[in-house]
């Protein structure tokens, strides 16, 4: 039987690169000599978090390395509680100096991109725990990140104080699972536990049958505590709201919104046709773009052999941050990520291109202007002369208060489209952000 992690018994994260995984495996399993050492399993080298998760839950993941495709599928769905999937992670930043260095950014805060990678890894582990039927004779489900519903940062996350992540399944559909993760950090200045939440994140995973590749039903969930019931109801309401919004958007596109498009395009046309007369406080969307590319390597794969979703989020975030920085001319500060969609899997060896731009800005509040950045990942296959969108990610930034003070009077430009396609993207993003 696996042992559940709970808030009272968190999994500690260590900086050691010389993991004791192989030794612990041999000590606990007399048949381990016939197994691949855990330190050679896929995904081991993403971060200290990944190592800790592998070591703690290796019994669950062993079946996923070589799934028994000829085994029968799970026939009886179980009913589980959120507490059965709950996991807690503790980063000992206050005492582990090497770990601190692994996560430190240039401002002595935690690197958000690296934290996003860890959050995806933990959410994936929680989804596997929830879907496990504790029956070794059935074939396990194939679980993939479908989207990130919302990641909101509530305060800066220091790298000098211990950090805790607590997460559990909050809602399930027929084949989808929603996991909420809460990142908390206390310090002498914020000793009040109610002020300790630094970040919240909501991940959505979908289940597929390993053999058929089709959507597979997942275990049910019954919330127990008042907080669990509230989270379940909120997730259900948001899911229904998104479905209604999608239907409404389809009708809007059918009926057309010419006035809205024309208003957005009017200033862009001046830039294109009469650039000398264009508003100097505005800029064309195409002039905010940045791009980078990479070849996906085996070290970046997950348990299923595909490229780890957290790695893609990490790389996309850092490009988005650079885009906001180059656009504003001042150091940005992360606010939230929303509507991160994983549309197609990315494989080892794929040529991946990330393209980013500032879609629109909100500068009405001069003390907290907002910069909305879109990052689109393309899997490019030069030999086939093809390019497909694999991921769409949206990040919102503001400006660091101390930087804003030093640059008093500096304004954030308005972004305008030059084409109708760009106008549609901006409107779609504005509407999604209004949810």
From TrEMBL:
Magnesium among keywords: no
Keywords: Coiled coil, Hydrolase, Repeat, Transit peptide
Keyword Transit peptide among UniProt keywords: yes
Superkingdom, natural source: Eukaryota
PROSITE patterns associated with the record: HOTDOG_ACOT
Annotated segments matching region Disordered: 1-39
Gene Ontology annotations of biological process type: acyl-CoA metabolic process
Domain HotDog ACOT-type, first and last residues per copy: 89-211, 286-403
Coiled coil spans: 232-259
Signal peptide interval: none
Composition bias, Low complexity: 1-19
InterPro entries tied to this protein: HOTDOG_ACOT (IPR033120), HotDog_dom_sf (IPR029069)
A GO molecular-function annotation: fatty acyl-CoA hydrolase activity
Membership in a protein family: Belongs to the acyl coenzyme A hydrolase family.
Protein name: Thioesterase/thiol ester dehydrase-isomerase superfamily protein
């Amino acid at each position: 039987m696996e042992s559940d992690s709970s808030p009272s018994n968190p999994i500690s994260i260590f900086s050691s690169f010389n993991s004791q995984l192989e030794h612990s495996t041999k000590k606990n399993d007399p048949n381990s000599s016939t197994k691949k050492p855990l330190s050679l399993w896929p995904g081991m080298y993403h971060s200290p978090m990944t190592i800790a998760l592998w070591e703690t839950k290796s019994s669950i993941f062993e079946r996923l390395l070589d799934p028994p495709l000829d085994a029968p599928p799970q026939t009886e769905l179980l009913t589980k509680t959120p507490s059965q999937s709950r996991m807690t992670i503790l980063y000992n930043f206050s005492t582990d100096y090497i770990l601190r260095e692994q996560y430190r950014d240039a401002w002595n805060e935690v690197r958000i991109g690296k934290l996003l990678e860890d959050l995806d890894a933990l959410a994936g582990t929680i989804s596997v725990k929830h879907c496990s039927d504790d029956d070794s004779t059935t074939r396990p489900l194939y679980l993939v990140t479908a989207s990130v519903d919302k990641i909101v940062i509530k305060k800066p996350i220091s790298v000098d104080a211990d950090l805790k992540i607590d997460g559990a399944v909050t809602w399930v559909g027929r084949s989808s699972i929603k996991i909420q993760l809460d990142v908390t950090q206390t310090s002498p200045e914020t000793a009040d536990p109610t002020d300790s939440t630094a970040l919240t994140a909501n991940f959505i995973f979908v289940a597929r049958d390993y053999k058929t590749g089709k959507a597979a039903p997942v275990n049910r969930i019954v919330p127990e505590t008042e907080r669990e019931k509230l989270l379940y109801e909120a997730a259900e309401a948001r899911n229904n709201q998104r479905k209604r919004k999608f239907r409404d958007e389809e009708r809007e596109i059918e009926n057309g919104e010419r006035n809205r498009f024309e208003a957005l395009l009017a200033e862009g046309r001046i830039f294109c046709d009469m650039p000398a007369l264009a508003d100097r406080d505005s800029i064309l969307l195409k002039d905010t773009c940045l791009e980078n590319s990479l070849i996906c390597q085996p070290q970046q794969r997950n348990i299923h052999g595909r490229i780890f979703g957290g790695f893609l989020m990490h790389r996309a975030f850092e490009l988005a941050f650079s885009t906001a920085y180059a656009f504003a001319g001042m150091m940005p500060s992360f606010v939230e990520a929303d509507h991160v969609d994983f549309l197609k899997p990315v494989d080892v060896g794929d040529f991946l291109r990330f393209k980013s731009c500032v879609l629109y800005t909100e500068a009405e509040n001069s003390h907290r202007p907002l910069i909305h950045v879109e990052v689109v990942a393309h899997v490019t296959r030069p030999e086939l002369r093809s390019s497909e969108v694999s991921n769409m990610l949206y990040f919102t930034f503001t400006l660091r208060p101390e930087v804003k003070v030093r640059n008093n009077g500096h304004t954030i430009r308005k972004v305008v489209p030059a084409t109708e396609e760009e106008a549609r993207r901006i409107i779609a993003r504005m509407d999604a952000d209004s949810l």
